[in-house]
């Protein structure tokens, strides 16, 4: 009987040992799965914080760039206004000088026309006088 029972007892011990090993491996597997889940969670959480920091820095950079753009636009507007003022001053000064030159030219042309008219009148009077002298000279000589 011992011969029949002993192999069965040995088999049962091996089966029990295998079953206990199976349970131990199952518990280790569950523990490792929980650790893996915890590791994944912590990695995701760390990655999330890193991304939040990156988002914050990108938003700050966007604000800085927007401020730089705003400042550049204001500077451009100031320079355009200054350029317009300078052009207006130039046009006013140039316009005034041009009018002054035009008036001088007009006055000079009027004086020239008057002088030419006086010269023409003198030439005509000189011709008339010459003609009168020539007639009187002829009349005296005749």
Notes on the protein architecture:
The protein is mainly alpha-helical and 142 residues long. Helices cover 99% and strands 0% of the residues. The radius of gyration is 59 Å and the shape is rod-shaped. The N and C termini lie far apart (201 Å). The model has no long low-confidence stretch (mean pLDDT 92).
Distance between the termini: 201 Å
- What is the count of DSSP helices, taking H or I runs of 4+ residues? 1
Mean pLDDT: 92
- What fraction of residues sit in β-strands? under 5%
Attribute tags:
142 residues, mainly alpha, single chain, rod-shaped
What is the secondary structure topology, with strand pairs?
Layout: H1 2-141
Quick recap:
This protein has 142 residues and is mainly alpha-helical. The chain has one helix and no strands. It has one helix at residues 2-141.
